Amino acid sequence: MHAGKIYIIDYEYGSYNYQGYDIANHFNEHVGFECDYSFWGGKADVLYFSQRLTLILWHINVTICARYPNKEKQFHFFRHYLQPGNLKKLYVECNFDSLVSHMYWAIHAIVHCKEEVLSLTHNYLASGRI
Q: Which residues contact 31 (CB under 8 A, 6 or more apart)?
């Protein structure tokens, strides 16, 4: 690390991305996921689909929206770590790319879970217990 510079490196999925995307992904990951399943009386694997959906929507509204850095905090980050020429342009780019980051990781999750879910569904339907 060089004095006065920040390097955002995602070692797990490192690749070249646009500046706004990397920063937006950092903001998204900064939010985190701390889910309290005890609210539902147990673990997520025993929840009905409607309960899971409610839990996810609650998490998005309460946790993510509350923790995602607002405009003031984003500008603070930009000024102190990046010193960009056009703060508003970077702000707009990061907020747009925040959605792109969410879409990327949603697709990533689908791709990695697809075989397990399809296998489970196939086995259930093949058992004749519908």
A: 63, 64, 67, 68
> Which sign, positive or negative, has the C-alpha torsion 55, 57, 62, 65?
positive
Q: What is the pLDDT of residues 11-42, one digit of tens each?
A: 666 677 888 898 898 888 877 666 555 655 55
91 membership: H or E segment, kind and range: helix 87-126
Burial profile 28-43: b = 16 or more Cβ within 10 angstroms, e = fewer: beebeeeeeeeebeee
Q: Write the single-letter amino acid at 73.
A: K
Structure confidence by residue, pLDDT tens digits, 75-119: 988 888 787 788 899 999 999 999 998 898 888 888 887 888 788
C-alpha 59/C-alpha 77 separation (Å) is 25
Q: For the whole prediction, is pTM greater than 0.90?
A: no
Tokens of 36: 């309290």
